[in-house]
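Retro notes (design track)

What went well: tokenization of the new backbones is finally stable.
What didn't: we kept losing track of which sequence belonged to which structure.
Fix going forward: every design gets posted as structure first, then sequence, in one message. First example under the new rule, 685 residues:
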């Protein structure tokens, strides 16, 4: 069969006219001057997209594994090895024997410096178009975008009616009514649209492909703040566009200024397994799912650019992640633990970091990541606080996070969009009284049967891993398509479950808190709290999975007066502030708790309790003294010890025991006798 085998002009059966059989030519010698040619046309590439679901999760944009899959569906490397270092080439990704890693010389991460006959080497790179990473170049001080690829655009951006992609909803214009507070000196004016200036034209093109028509409130302010060189601490409701709030300005700056040279004392990192990555932007996230989600968004907005996003997180094969970053890494999304591992292995250097982003910073500290974060920021080779920009984004910023900002941020702008810790009015909240598991199961079946008729995705939250598995099996036995996700599932199982849910093939997802924070799953129309959390912040984040980007949603909570009385008071206030219907049984439970003394956990005042109140959306640099608002030792929750009494524990609360009401004698948001419009400090009850 050798005489029938032809590989792009390398015929193993004959050597040309009048020539005898050719000997084997090693890959690194093919295409050399005077050697056997590889100059024939490349084989036709299969640009047909893989049918939805054909390869399951591991070939999807959501999959962390796909982010490292360089051996299939590559966009080039003709004559080189699909997953190995670029060696000689024809077309995207091959491109010349590349010397030591040089961020100014690569086009999209795998390209190199021109292939044989200058036939395209240097572009493409790193897994080719199938991966969707940057395939543009930085050439002669200018950003040269790569060619458009319709298949990649469909993969990254979907179609206008694609339910797996998030688009703005019917209530998006209502975001203009959300109050915004920016504190700090010389705060830049907000932008009102995606225009140049301040954004780069190529980024604006990618934003249009994502069908984002106007910036959200957090984006209106964060874009000029970050592009003006300021540090930022931003608090915003879940689903308000925080990810775009930091990706847009840092990518725009990258497109305008180009890559940074590696410091001379770093030596470039060698080749292959000796190569180190020198990212210029680092995004830290608390969970694998959130890191993967941010990475997917970065791929969208870095499309056709020279910027190469990468993602690393625990629970996945570290070898494939190492191979990913070996091909170049400009923007790195990471969980703290895995990043520390890669730093210890000498595979990532932080000496080139221009932007440090901490997403869901309060969650990372709640999960015990503070030692790793401090090591990454203060104990390695990252530039100090004066030589980088640091951005902190989250839905809540309690006191201990704001104080951490003193160490990580400089002269920052504090941005509060909406009242943090609140819920979106796009979400209709309902509370159902239950008195045991049988009640919960009965109501749940009714709700899910109704959801089946209306369509959309339903997210059901439970407190324990065992409950998640048991409830999903229970629903499956009732012919309801359900799957589960929790911390004991393997990474592959978690990604598979998320993919089935996100694409609508399994429209019911039973989840523990592992999926409650940060995940942006489009088209979630209903969130059900089968088990109410003991902390109202967790409730806020759970129901924030619906009603995102101006879309509407429904949140249902099962309330057991015996088991959930501790959260009754704070849940009541949350519903009132969101202008929701208040059931009488919830008022009765809140009143009973008030008379019983000792408020529930309410809104956390920080790790270990204490302090508290709800000043998490205020700039602590402006906090008045006294009380236990910030740094005080008062009893957390509203009004210290409950609705009627206790020290003034809320933000800025002064005064002593005092006469009840929310915040006691001098509580409330800003002191001054009872809070929430209750100047006399009298009990509401």
């Amino acid at each position: 069969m050798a005489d029938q085998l032809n590989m792009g002009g390398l015929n193993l059966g004959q050597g040309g006219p009048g020539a005898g059989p050719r000997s084997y030519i090693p890959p690194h010698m093919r295409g050399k001057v005077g050697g056997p040619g590889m100059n024939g046309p490349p084989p036709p590439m299969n640009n047909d997209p893989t049918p939805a679901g054909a390869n399951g999760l591991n070939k999807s944009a959501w999959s962390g594994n796909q982010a490292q899959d360089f051996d299939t569906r590559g966009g080039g490397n003709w004559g080189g090895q699909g997953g190995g270092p670029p060696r000689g080439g024809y077309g995207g990704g091959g491109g010349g024997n590349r010397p030591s890693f040089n961020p100014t010389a690569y086009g999209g991460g795998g390209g190199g410096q021109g292939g044989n006959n200058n036939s395209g080497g240097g572009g493409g790179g790193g897994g080719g178009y199938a991966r969707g990473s940057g395939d543009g170049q930085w050439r002669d001080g200018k950003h040269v975008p790569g060619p458009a690829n319709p298949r990649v655009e469909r993969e990254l951006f979907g179609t206008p009616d694609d339910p797996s992609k998030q688009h703005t909803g019917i209530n998006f214009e209502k975001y203009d009514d959300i109050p915004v507070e920016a504190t700090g000196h010389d705060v830049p004016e907000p932008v009102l649209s995606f225009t140049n200036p301040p954004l780069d034209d190529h980024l604006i093109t990618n934003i249009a492909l994502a069908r984002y028509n106007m910036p959200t409130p957090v984006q209106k302010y964060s874009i000029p703040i970050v592009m003006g060189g300021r540090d930022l601490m931003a608090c915003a409701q879940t689903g308000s566009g925080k990810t775009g709030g930091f990706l847009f300005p840092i990518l725009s700056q990258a497109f305008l200024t180009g890559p940074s040279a590696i410091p001379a004392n770093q030596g470039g990192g060698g080749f292959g397994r000796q190569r180190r990555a020198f990212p210029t932007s680092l995004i830290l996230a608390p969970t694998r799912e959130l890191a993967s989600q941010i990475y997917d968004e970065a791929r969208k907005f870095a499309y056709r650019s020279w910027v190469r996003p990468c993602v690393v997180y625990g629970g996945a094969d570290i070898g494939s992640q190492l191979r990913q970053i070996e091909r170049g890494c400009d923007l790195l999304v990471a969980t703290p633990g895995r990043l520390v591992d890669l730093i210890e292995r000498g595979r990532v250097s932080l000496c080139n970091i221009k932007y440090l982003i901490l997403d869901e910073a309060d969650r990372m500290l709640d999960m015990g990541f503070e030692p790793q974060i401090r090591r990454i920021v203060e104990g390695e080779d990252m530039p100090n606080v004066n030589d980088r920009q640091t951005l902190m984004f989250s839905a809540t910023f309690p006191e201990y996070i704001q104080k951490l900002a003193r160490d990580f941020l400089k002269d920052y702008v504090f941005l509060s969009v909406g009242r943090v810790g609140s819920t979106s009015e796009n979400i209709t909240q309902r509370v159902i009284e239950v008195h045991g598991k049988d009640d919960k199961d009965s109501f749940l079946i009714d709700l899910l049967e109704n959801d089946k008729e209306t369509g959309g995705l339903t997210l059901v939250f439970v407190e324990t891993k065992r409950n998640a598995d048991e409830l999903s099996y229970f629903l499956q036995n009732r012919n309801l398509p359900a799957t589960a996700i929790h911390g004991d599932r393997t990474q592959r199982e978690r990604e598979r479950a998320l993919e089935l849910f996100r694409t609508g093939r399994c429209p019911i997802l039973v989840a523990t808190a592992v999926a409650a924070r940060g995940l942006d799953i489009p088209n979630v129309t209903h969130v059900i709290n089968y088990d109410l959390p003991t902390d109202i912040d967790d409730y806020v984040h759970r129901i924030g999975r619906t009603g995102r980007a101006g879309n509407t949603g429904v949140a249902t909570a099962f309330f057991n007066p015996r088991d959930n009385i501790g959260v009754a008071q704070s849940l009541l206030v949350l519903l009132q502030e969101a202008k929701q219907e208040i059931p009488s049984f919830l008022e009765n439970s809140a009143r009973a708790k008030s008379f019983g003394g000792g408020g529930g956990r309410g809104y956390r005042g920080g790790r270990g309790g204490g302090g508290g109140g709800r000043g998490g959306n205020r700039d602590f640099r402006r906090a008045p003294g006294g009380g236990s608002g910030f740094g005080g030792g008062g009893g957390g929750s509203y009004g210290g010890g409950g609705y009627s009494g206790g020290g003034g524990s809320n933000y800025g609360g002064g005064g002593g025991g005092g006469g009840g009401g929310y915040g006691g004698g001098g509580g409330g948001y800003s002191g001054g006798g009872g809070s929430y419009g209750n100047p006399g400090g009298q009990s509401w009850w």
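Added context from the reviewer: Residues 1-19, 33-134, 597-615, 624-685 have pLDDT under 50 and may be disordered.
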